[in-house]
Specification:
This protein has 20 helices and 9 strands. The chain has 388 residues and is mainly alpha-helical. It folds into 2 domains: 235 residues, Hypothetical protein af1432 (Orthogonal Bundle); 68 residues. Helix 3 packs across helix 10 and helix 4 crosses helix 8. It starts with 6 loop residues before the first strand and ends with a helix.
Length: 388
């Protein structure tokens, strides 16, 4: 895309020079978008990887850049290019404090997620005014954000969003696992049957993205210390919401720091203690770690339905259950083989199938607690689960 007088240039440590149109700059300048500067991309990961201070703000711009590369590769017309770029730029607008670390709580307690909040911001804030000033259809933009049609180029398994966060998270955490051939992915992408697919020449590059995700998840996102810090934060936020010490109105405007200060200074002692412990990095310790696949079906059912209640009754908020997270459930990538047949990635890639099996073996249940309760919690959990 040629630069013109209606564009400005910014520099990004991941992608280098990124050109933005004037209406995109005006969207960035809206207060609701500027808030993203204070929302960390990977939540509390900085407690283990100190460099992980990057925000949703720069990720959103990076996603726009990669979405535009998809538009170039697929020869998307200028009108649809506008909506593709904007959907990438605004796709995380509704993220609350600490991104996904708070989202699970908001979904459970308030029945809301960042996608719903994104649409709310677009329809009811200064974002709407900018879009209207440039005759940009909010309905069409929301269709793109919902992943309809060309909008899926942002959200599919090797789309602009995922490519950028792997590159960016790898860079800022200092691990090499997220270094991927994003340009190969984009150049081999095709548009067939109203959906994006990866051509046969991009199979290895697609496999590298899945491998990068696998390594990032198990080295960074699922790191046991990060999981513990996340669980403490989520418990504190849950307490605050249940006791109405904080509400959605604040969560729609707060940055990470503003939320931490509010929760630390709240009237609930457990909530305040949990947040103070995070800020001082005096985190709970692992009292028990159980490989998920070694539990039988009745034990798993007990864990899901009863264990958290028993822990709360016995130890209040001083012990927390952390359920295993599923790596493979969100992977749904279509590839074209050399004969032109379209199949699921795992059907044509034994390598990816083996990753799914490895992920299942790595899944673990963690029960963490205050340091002085570790021995007692471990004994109780062993008894409740009939562990040897």
């Amino acid at each position: 895309m040629e630069k013109n007088k209606n564009q400005i240039t910014i520099r990004d440590p991941i992608h280098g020079q990124i050109d933005l149109f004037d209406y995109e700059v005006k969207l960035l300048d809206c207060d609701v978008f500027q808030r993203l500067r204070g929302i960390k991309q990977v939540g509390l990961t900085y407690l283990v990887y100190p460099g992980a201070q990057h925000s949703r703000f720069e990720h959103s711009i990076g996603s726009l850049y990669l979405a535009d590369k998809f538009a170039n590769s697929l020869a998307i017309n200028n009108q649809n290019r506008v909506y593709l770029r904007l959907s990438a730029l605004l796709h995380d607008l509704g993220h609350s404090c600490f991104s996904h670390d708070s989202e699970a709580v908001l979904k459970k307690e308030l029945g809301i997620n960042h996608e719903k909040l994104t649409k709310d911001f677009i329809k009811n804030t200064s974002i709407k005014d900018v879009l209207n000033d440039y005759s940009i259809s909010i309905k069409k933009l929301i269709d793109f954000l919902d992943g309809k049609g060309l909008g899926s180029l942002v959200s599919f398994d090797v789309g602009a969003d995922r490519l950028d966060y792997l590159l960016r998270d790898s860079y800022y955490t200092g691990v090499a696992y997220g270094v991927i051939e994003w340009d190969r992915i984009i150049s081999t992408s095709k548009w067939k049957n109203n959906r994006p697919i990866i051509g046969a020449g991009g199979l290895e590059a697609a496999e590298s993205v899945i491998l990068a995700r696998f390594l990032m998840f198990h080295t960074v996102y699922y790191h046991h210390t990060i999981r513990i810090a996340r669980s403490m934060f989520q418990r504190a936020l849950t307490i605050a919401l249940k006791e109405k010490l904080i509400g959605l109105k604040q969560l729609k405007t707060f940055t990470d720091l503003e939320l931490l200060v509010t929760l630390k200074n709240c009237s609930n002692k457990d909530c305040s203690f949990l947040i103070s412990s995070i800020l001082e990095r005096k985190l709970f310790k692992r009292a028990a770690v159980v490989e998920w696949e070694k539990l039988n079906s009745s034990q798993k059912e007990f864990v899901k339905k009863e264990l958290d209640k028993l822990l709360e009754a016995e130890f209040s908020n001083n012990a927390i259950l952390i359920l295993p997270e599923n790596f493979s459930s969100s992977i749904n990538l279509n590839v074209e083989d050399k004969s032109g047949k379209i199949q699921k990635l795992e059907q044509v890639s034994p390598f990816v199938s083996s990753l799914f099996e490895s992920a299942a073996k790595k899944a673990s249940l963690i029960i963490c607690s205050k340091k002085d309760l570790v021995k007692k919690v471990k004994q109780k959990v062993s008894t409740w689960l009939n562990l040897d």
